[in-house]
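User:
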Amino acid sequence: MTTETLANGKTYIHRTSAHCETGVTSALFRDKGLDISEPMVFGIGSGIFFGHLPFIKQTGLPISTFRSIPGLVFKKAAKRLGVTVFRKRFRSPQKGMDELRRVIRTGQIAAVTTNVYWLSFFPRRYRFNFSGHNFIVLYENENGFRISDPALLEYTTDCSTHDMERARFARGPMEPRGLMYYPISVNPNPDIRKACITGMTDSCNQMLKIPIPLFGVKGMRYVAQKVIKWPEKLGYVEACRQLAHILRLQEEMGTGGAGFRYIFAAFLQEAGELFGSTELNDLSNEMTAIGDIWREFAVVSSRIIKHRKTKSEETFEKAGGLMLICAGREEELFKNLRDVVGKLKS
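Assistant: Predicted structure:
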């Protein structure tokens, strides 16, 4: 944990987080006087999700996402907690950089969305072409900009002006177009209980009620069946390439499947304490167990891709089967959560 002095003399405390958007959102709210944890932000903002997007491709392969669309957690959490926000994209890099400078000179911290590949403060071997990474800009100095990246860095660091502009205005899939956002004002006494109930209800609907079979638990089953059939349909080499793409999306980009399940479990635990609900605590334990199965899926998949054998040979059928187990248990969990929320409302 490190501290920085902003342009208005105010102190900013850098704290690490599990995920960029939720960590940044928590820090932005805390800077305005609303001290709320990262798991609470994630749960209230309905971050838990699953979706398979064959119409959006990265490196020529469809995207599978384990969280809601980037930016929605911030917007939903802000709305449900009574936070007034500024959020804008820019056509011109010059205008986007000028606006960033104008804002931070007042002492207001601002979050930006960037492409990880162009951030030279991050080790080269870990960089990849992903335009959904968020961090906070604190102030400008002789080295460029002082930034707080709660998801990637233990301490604050400097980002050169060249890197900042290139990362904010990178071209390609999901290009950020200089996105900048920050809270203008917060409700000092938000109705946390109501916000939690709204977030949980929304999450249940996203996981259970979307009729298109590419989203929620239906989407998990759809992808699982594809994984099982890949070797026969695509051949072993291409099947491994497709599986590696899912594994990368799960474990490297945006925290991933298991990571988000653990964050949601932490939210359910906090909500359980808030409402005095043992049922929410039990669901928290179940979501942690589901996260462990997602991690097992990742281990099995990596062994398949790297041709590593164990005592029981790893197969695509086993990997797809683990995903089906996750789908079944998440379906049951969100049905139970829906029932618990109904009780909390009454």
